[in-house]
Amino acid sequence: MIVCFDIGGTAIKGAAAYSPDDIRPFPRQPTPSGDFDAFVATMAHVIAQVDERPACIALSITGIIDPDTGLAVVANIPCIHGRPLKQDLEAALGLPVLIANDADCFVLAESALGAGRGHRVVFGVILGTGVGGGLVINQTLINSDGGFAGEWGHAPIAATEAGTPPVHLPRFQCGCGQIGCIDATCSARGLEKIHQHLHQVQLTSEEIVEGWQKGDAAASQTISVFVDVIAGPLALVINTTGTTIVPVGGGLSNAPNLMSAIDVAVRKRILRQFTRPLVVPAQCRIEPGLIGAAILGLNSNRP
Q: Is the CB of residue 180 less than 8 Å from the CB of residue 174?
């Protein structure tokens, strides 16, 4: 048995995990984002609720562990940002600690229990407020020691011409400091920026997708450009990793027609030909971070 946590900026979700399909959640606790001692006490309170000593603690965090320094990079939780989080938690809690990015935990969940079941290589994609990803090979995270692998959203490669017929796009500023990232152009906010640029109208991503599904010409052009921009970089990731399935989570994955449009465009751009969908909506829609953290911990304790 292990105890797993999904650590968010506003809430900490904890659970006792006995197997990937036997995860028993505890009530959510507020995240003490500015007080490390209170942060540790919150975790200890959850751990104390189990009736045996866990083999380890596994965390899903909205950030990464820098593989060179071992320091946590978690901007929305100041009390753990910049800390050697694994060592500090192990010292405070007296148990082994494993930590992974929330996108990595998402793809672990999909690989074990979701759309990636039966696939050796699974690349999971997040299309929401940002663009993220994670890679699992043989049920094991490529980021087993932390790191940036899978962060396909951050590189200055977004097309400046896209759509049919092609239109010009600016290189949008990205939160990572670069200009022209896929994260800045193909996230939900990026979709809104494309629409604003093309039509000088501010709409939410949900309104744009709804308009496209109803046949609105302006929304249809925006989606055409969006799909064209995202398909090339995602095809490159698929060619590079050899993944045979791409589960997608995040807010934009809730639009099945959009997922189908991306899938068709991507399959036209890759070397290996698939007669089935490759880019598909994720199946683990509830608590994928917690499930992924559970699998991370359970896998580490396999004989």
A: yes
Domain 118-281, CATH 3.30.420.40 — does that match?
yes
**Chain centroid to CA 100: how far?**
11
- Higher pLDDT among residues 235 and 142, named by residue: 235
- Residue 19's SS3 state is strand
CB 218: neighbour CB atoms within 10 A? Answer: 15
Secondary structure percentages of the chain, helix, strand, coil, to 5: 35, 20, 40
More confident position, 143 or 151? 151
CATH architecture, domain defined by 2-105+286-300: 2-Layer Sandwich (3.30)
| Average confidence (pLDDT) over 157-169 | 94
Q: Where are the domains of the chain?
A: 2-105+286-300, 118-281
Structure tokens at 26: 């505890």
The residues with which 124 forms a beta bridge, in sequence order, are: 134
Least confident window among 202-211, 255-264, 288-297? 288-297
Residues 13 and 6: beta-carbon distance below 8 Å: yes
Which residue is listed with tokens 């899978």?
150
> Mean pLDDT across the chain, nearest whole number?
94
DSSP 1: -
In whole angstroms, give the CA distance from residue 134 to residue 140. Answer: 11
Read off the pLDDT of each residue in 175-180 and give the average, rounded to a whole number.
91
Strand segments, DSSP code E, in 42-198 are 57-61, 64-65, 72-73, 97-101, 121-127, 131-137, 140-141, 161-162, 167-168
What pLDDT, in 10s, does the model give residues 50-78? 989 999 999 999 889 998 999 999 888 99
Instruction: To the nearest 10°, report the CA torsion of 30, 296, 114, 125.
Output: 80
